C-alpha cells in the first residue's frame, strides 16, 4: 500500500493486465468496473473501487465539474434480477443506500473512483466518493434489448475534496477499524451529516 493522490495518473509498470495500476495501488481485482476490498476477517467490505472505463454505451457514467457523479451498476445481462451480478456491485449499491436511508452513514464504506488514463492500463484517481444527498439517490432503470430487458441501478454520488488517501487509513479500514485518525476530514463530515461541501476543483 501507498498514499494515493487525487487527480494523479498512475502508470502501468508491467505488460498486460497484470500491470493494471489500480491493482498495484490497492488489494483489489485487476478487472471490472466494480471491485471490493474486504475486511481482513472477510466479513464486511472495507472499501470499494469504481472504475470508469468510458466504454459503456447504454450505461455511460458521468463526472461533472462540481464533483457530482452518475454511476451505473454492474448488471449487463438481460432477463436477470437486478442484484444477480458476478461481482455483486448492484447488491452493494442497494445495501449502502439502505444504510444511508436508515441514518447509518457510519457503516457506509468509502468508494475510490478511477478512470482510464493515457494508454493501456494507466489509471487516473478521481477521488473519494460518497452517496449524494439527492432525494432520488438510487434509481432502478430498464433498458430493452433484442435479447430482453436489462434492469440496472443508477446512483448519484459526490466526489469529496480529499487530496490524499493515506495508506495508514487504508490499513485501518482493511482491519475493520472504523474510527481511524487518518480518516479524511471530508469523509468524517459526511458521515456525521455535516454536508457543507467546499468549493470543488474539477478533476
Description:
The strands form two sheets. Strands 2, 3, 4, 5, 6, 7, 8, 9 and 10 form a nine-stranded mixed beta sheet that branches. Strands 1-11 form a two-stranded antiparallel ribbon. The model is unreliable at 196-200 (pLDDT under 50). It starts with a strand and ends in a 12-residue tail after the last helix. The protein is built from four helices and eleven strands, in the order ββαββββαβββββαα. The protein is of the alpha+beta class and 203 residues long.
Number of strands: 11
Kindly estimate the percentage of residues that lie in beta strands according to DSSP. 25-35%
Gap between N and C termini: 23 Å
- Determine the number of helices (DSSP H or I, runs of at least 4 residues): 4
Uncertain residue segments = 196-200
Q: What spatial form do the alpha-carbon principal axes imply?
A: globular
User: What kind of assembly state do the chains in view correspond to?
Assistant: single chain
* Overall mean confidence score, pLDDT: 88
Structural class: alpha+beta
Helical content, roughly? 10-25%
Radius of gyration: 16 Å
Amino acid at each position: 500500500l501507498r498514499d494515493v493522490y487525487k487527480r494523479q495518473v498512475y502508470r502501468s509498470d508491467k505488460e498486460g493486465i497484470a500491470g493494471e495500476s489500480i491493482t498495484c495501488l490497492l488489494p483489489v481485482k485487476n478487472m471490472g468496473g466494480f471491485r471490493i476490498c474486504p475486511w481482513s476477517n472477510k466479513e464486511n467490505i472495507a472499501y470499494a473501487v469504481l472504475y470508469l472505463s468510458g466504454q459503456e454505451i447504454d450505461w455511460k457514467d458521468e463526472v461533472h465539474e462540481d464533483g457530482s457523479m452518475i454511476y451505473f451498476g454492474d448488471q449487463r445481462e438481460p432477463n436477470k434480477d437486478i442484484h444477480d451480478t458476478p461481482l455483486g456491485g448492484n447488491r452493494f449499491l442497494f445495501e449502502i443506500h439502505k444504510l444511508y436511508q436508515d441514518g447509518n452513514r457510519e457503516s457506509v464504506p468509502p468508494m475510490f473512483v478511477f478512470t482510464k488514463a493515457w494508454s493501456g492500463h494507466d489509471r487516473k484517481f478521481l477521488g473519494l466518493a460518497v452517496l449524494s444527498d439527492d432525494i432520488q439517490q438510487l434509481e432502478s432503470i430498464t433498458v430493452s434489448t433484442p435479447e430482453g430487458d436489462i434492469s440496472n441501478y443508477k446512483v448519484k454520488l459526490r466526489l469529496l475534496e480529499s487530496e490524499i488517501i493515506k495508506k495508514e487509513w487504508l490499513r485501518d479500514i482493511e482491519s475493520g477499524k472504523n474510527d481511524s485518525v487518518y480518516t479524511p476530514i471530508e469523509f468524517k463530515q459526511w458521515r456525521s451529516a455535516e454536508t457543507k461541501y467546499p468549493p470543488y476543483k474539477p478533476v
